[in-house]
Fold these 2 entries.
Entry 1:
Amino acid sequence: MKSYEVIINHKGPIDLSVIDSILLTLKNYIQDKQLDIVLRKRLYTLAVECLDNIYKHADKSEHHSDLISEFPSRFIVEKIGDDYMLHTGNIIFDVNKEKITNKINKINNHDQEEINKLYKRALMHAEISEKGGAGLGLIVMARSTGHKIKYDFEKINDKFFYFAMQLTLKK
Amino acid sequence: MRYINIPASEKSPKVIFEPKKYFFEMEGNSRPENVRDFFYPIIDTLKEHFDALIRKANKNDDEPIFNFNFKLEYFNSASAKFISDILVIVKNCNENNVKIKVNWYFEDGDEDMKEVGEDFSDMITFPFNFIMVKR
């Protein structure tokens, strides 16, 4: 039977201080376990990009605080055998569902070599948004895992979906 | 002539720009809270300096080589965009007779950091000097 360990299990708001605290926990874990340099940097990269994505892109509305407590943002890192699984979840407006789906599907339809080309093109043409994002996060995630990005949308109501994403990092 | 001397923090790299010494260096981790506020002034300073250098490059053949050292341990995707903007300045210099050398440091075993340097080098079609550092 494969070993199972939960390294991070965060459910609740994700702001800059929460991100710092999660990354510190992860850094300590990485140091304790003396992971191989490539694996530890990929794990850290995935965590940063996932948390940044939630922080910058989770659609919040002050009028929907009850929704936020019922469907909190989440960030989970678990180790199953030698592999790491990262899970994220956050609320999005229904109008953003198609945009996210298209973006992930476009990346998932490429092999690793094509993703590298996509990354270089995106670097040259990226514009930094008001929120400080370069739109490169998902491509960086796909580069770091080498696996397809799994995702799902759960309908909350007419206006909102809960967007869940899962990344696998193999040793 | 503008200098840059930004000390490293937990989230942002040390950045040094000493035009008189023909030296630019970025070292450490880069995931600044406000990535635009951090990088825009650096890029503006570099642009201003190198635009002036390009204007006089053809008249001054004995100008020393300008060294760009990247000693990065980690950078997020938004920082990658700004590093690529800095490297576009390098590309522009190279195409306009300003002598530049890019030294890309990576830790022994950190194949991803080496690869990302190779990607940047490809992107600006300018060869880097890759330097492996033992821990």
Note: Residues 4-56+77-133 of chain B form one domain.
Entry 2:
Amino acid sequence: MKIRVLVSLKPGVLDPQGRAVHHALEGLGFNGVDDVRIGRTVELDVADDTSDAALTEMCEKLLANTVIENYKIEKLG
Amino acid sequence: MAFRSAVITFPGSNCDRDMAVALEQVSGTAPVRVWHGDAQLPDGLDFIALPGGFSYGDYLRSGAMAANSPIMREIVRAADRGVPVLGVCNGFQVLTEARLLPGALMRNASQHFICRNAGLTVENAQSIFTSGYSAGQEISIPVAHHDGNFFADEETLDRIEGEGRVAFRYTDNLNGSRRDIAGVLNKAGNVLGMMPHPERAVDAAHGGTDGLAFFEGAMKALASA
């Protein structure tokens, strides 16, 4: 089973990388960009019988730092 | 009684030797060197140090992989028993990832790696680690990091400030840290994480010796405990 975990910074957490990319986009002439936030994608290939609880635990224990990050688990089939 | 300390080495640690040299210089006893994959800590430790570096190449997040090393389970247990645990730089990142300390260390606000002496104010001079200083004292200690921008939510910041757990603040906030925080203690006061490197300021040849009082104070506090 293919799983995609999207890790993103929580709202309110300053994203220096996103801000730098935002400035770079403006430098390239792309106006009208209000905000840029950078996250991370983790793709997993797991046994078909992997439980939702186990996937959640993987995110909570390692893939995301829940002090600063949110995560979303997508099952790609 | 000999001072029994341990320095943990993770794959990618690069300040472990500096830390061991500083501990031996001040205590007269060489620390035990412990590899991250070891399942056990030596018995009867007075002090555990997690050094700076780039454990696991900072993969995923700085400190995230090392926080799940076999030895970390033992370190969490030792910290719970009250053994003093110091994390410097990458060691601080590991301690936050292991949830022994609050908050997280994010990319410096400037995006730049910062390597220079940092002015610090000693906020709490009552802890094991800071008793060699006086409250409000200004010291100069080197920093060298890319991810030293301390973040915690407002509620957490208010709590740690209220509990006197801010050990050091930057006099000039160089990395964007919330409330200028450079070093933070756990609730019990036996775990300290700090981005600046006191072990790099224990010899005149280092360009400064403000880190000496850090280790001497800790040793004295532990000897009288």
Note: Residues 16-27 of chain B form the longest helix (12 residues).
